[in-house]
Each structure stands twice: as C-alpha cells, then as structure tokens.
Amino acid sequence: MQQALIQHGVLLDAEALIPASAIAGSLGAALLFLPQAQRLAIGSFKGDLTALATEFFRTMANKIAHGHTAGADCASEKPAPTAGPGQPTFQHIAEGAAELQSMVIEDWAGEVAGSTYLEEKFRIPRSTLHRWQRRNEVIALRKGGRKHVFPLAQFVDGRPAPGLSEVLSLIPNPRLAWFWLARPSPGLDGRTPIEMLKHDMVHEVMLAARDFSSAGSITLPV
Q1: Helix axes 91-102, 174-181, angle to 10 degrees
Q2: What pTM was estimated for this model as a whole?
Q3: For the CA atoms of 200, 192, 99, 218, what is the dihedral angle to 10 degrees?
Q4: Which of 47, 92, 143, 178 has CB 3.0 to 4.6 Å from 217, enough for a Cys bridge?
C-alpha cells in the first residue's frame, strides 16, 4: 500500500496508513465480486475518482457517527451466541455461506463446468467424478435444482488438487470452501490456497484452513 502511494507522490504516516490499507483491501476484494459489466464500467470510468472517494468517506464517517450508539444498543439487547467448549463459532461463516448461495456462481467462483464438459474436455469419466464427489475429494457447487458444476481451477492433469478433502473436512460448505480456496489468503502471506495445493503444499493450507474455520467470520462483497 505504501509503495503504491509513493508511486503516486503520496506519503502517509503510520497512523493513517493502517486504516487506508484496510479500506483498500476491502474495496479491492469487493470489486472482484461485482458482475463483469459493473467491473468493466468502473475500469472505463474517466471521471474524478478523488471526488467520489471523498464523498464515500464522508458518508462512511456520518454513518459511523450516527449509527454507533444504535448499534451498541442493539448488541446489548441481543447478545451473540457463543460456542461450546472447544468448538469454533460458525455463526458468521454460516451467514457468509448463505449469502454465497444467493449469488450467481460465475460472479465469484470463476470458470465452472458440468460433468459433460469435464468428460469431453478433461477426459474425466462421470463415474470417476461422482466417486470423487462422494468422497469429498472435489469441490462441487450446486447450481439450480439438483445440478452440480465444478470449478475448473481445482483440477491438475485431470485430477483434483491434493488436499481438497482435508480442506472440506474443516470447511464443510463447498461454496464457502471454494470461496476461501480461490482467493489470496492473509494467513498464507497473500498466496492463493488452491494454487498452493497444486504445488503439494497441503500442510500449510490445512493450517490456514483451520484458522479460517475457527475464526468464525467471512467478509463478502456488498
């Protein structure tokens, strides 16, 4: 973040750099999940981005200033449930998984395909694909009624990347598991878990997946 600002002739002190980095990361993550048409529109925007950003932050500050007390009151009226001894809290993760369920798969999961395509192009027999699915060795995402599609990025030489079953044992919801696998992870120094699995770095990914599932939170685009 600091290097990018320096390239544009902007210097921030350490106190300002921390929230700026957090906001930049959140905005970047949200941009990835916008429909393609909206991403293209933003990319081609030639207006005054500084003015838009200033208005955005003014609105944010006003909402925080006026909503902080109300939020605290609501929190006091309805305390968050806690997990039992030794159990991770999955409330926020469950909410995130439900939100992913309502999103169009192609908008967040990348390239996906059904069993017919995989059989024709990847030479993966349907029986083999279904066996992998039963054993939780492959990520299958429900699309529509009973149809499943499979993210193509999980396959290496016609087989699922190693370690997928271990990840699914920690993050049982396939949509949430793939959401996490396909994006740079702070717990892995910004590396992408699925790419690490393709390079047999299963242990490192497992540790990060365990931390993710224990954290009990997920940030999705608005």
Answers
A1: 90
A2: 0.55
A3: 100
A4: 92
